[in-house]
Amino acid sequence: MARIVSLGSALQDIYLIDRDDFVGSDVGGQSIFGQLVIGTKVDIDKVAFEVGGGGTNAAVSFARHGHETIFMGNLAHDAAGEAVLACLDEENIDSSYVEFQRGKTGCSVVMLDAKSGERTILTHRGVSGRFNNLSADDLELIAPDWLYVTSLRGDMDTLLAFFEAAHANGAKIMFNPGELEIEQLPKLIGLLDDVDILLVNKREAAKIVPGVVLTELLVHLATYCQTVIITDGEMGSIATDHQEVYRLGVYEQVKMRDATGAGDAFGAGFLAAYASEPAGKAKESHFAHALQFAAANAASVVQKYGAKAGILSGDEDLHPMPIQKITDLTL
Fold it and tell me: For the chain, how many structural domains are there in total?
């Protein structure tokens, strides 16, 4: 098993779940929660308190797979921070590199329509949205095999410091950038030279490189990184490690209860499986197996409320899924 550092955000998620009051209404070509009247009280069917944030979501996928996992991020000394720490402790995730800052731990209110699974999220980032106080020098002491990084809210200087420290200490990097990183495209392109595995969705990929269809986007992104994965929601995903190219459908058609954390489950699920040493004949299809587990992990997560309840352990028997090896794509 590997030693993996997960760098990113940690939030408390408060779920407001209802079957009637959050039904969407079309206004100006967009769907909004149209049943809430200003000045009234609304009875909610269910409330749930969960722990979210891309950094902790990924960390749980790694830990449940048996990897030695370290979370790096910011919390405050408050009830939400205590909830995050309790979650990390329960999942056997090392929290000794968590920094405590003055202010409030990040918090999200998730307004979820129980009928459709659609939701709107109201987020206060708090100290969880700041990263420039974290020390990349800690990677020398941790000596990780992998650094997994979700969005750092556009903090390119901190990203660069951690990427350089990771390579200086022999760690590989998997990066799942967010919109605020992609908005700074020249700096992002410069960072990709250090990235071993890049994960983006189709819309994000189209903002980084030219292209319309997945194969075009994959070919262009593969000029920057050894391994590239592009997801496309219900249309599945495409991926290459410069040795093999795979086009995947979804793992299974399921009723979506909550899409929160699906992207984190896919990305971290891939690395959780990929960083595990393959055995015997599995070595021949290790890349494909990691992609299959990523899809299964995401499919499991959307069937539960919260970003962590459905995360798999890696011991599950995976059933066959639509996956095609592409042999005629030139990288």
Answer: 1
The string of DSSP codes covering 41-96 is ----SEEEEEEE-HHHHHHHHHHHTT-EEEEE-EE-SSHHHHHHHHHHHHTT-B-T
Cα of first residue to Cα of last residue in the chain, in angstroms, is 31
Distance, in Å, from the CA atom of 328 to the CA atom of 331, rounded to the nearest integer, reads: 10
- Cα–Cα distance measured from residue 67 to residue 94, given in angstroms and rounded to the nearest whole number: 11
Tens of pLDDT along 267-302?
Answer: 999 999 999 977 554 555 899 999 999 999 999 999
Closest to 267 in 3D by CA, of 233, 229, 300: 229
Q: Provide the β-strand partners of residue 31.
A: 26
Q: Give the separation between CA 216 and CA 316, rounded to whole angstroms.
A: 34
Query: For the whole model, what pTM was predicted?
Result: 0.94
Question: Which domain does 244 fall in, by range?
Answer: 3-7+54-71+87-100+130-325
Residue 113 falls within a domain, yes or no? no
Is 239 within a domain? yes
Q: What are the pLDDT digits (tens) for 197-255?
A: 999 999 999 999 999 999 999 999 999 999 999 999 889 999 999 999 999 999 998 88
In a domain, 277, yes or no: yes
Angle between helix 79-90 and 54-64 (nearest 10): 20
Residues 296/272, Cβ–Cβ less than 8 Å: no
18, β-bridge pairs: 113
CB burial of 93-121 (b: ≥16 within 10 Å; e: otherwise) equals bbbebbeebebbbbbbebbbbbeebbbee
The answer to whether 207 and 221 have CB atoms below 8 angstroms apart is no
CATH number of the structural domain spanning residue 198: 3.40.1190.20
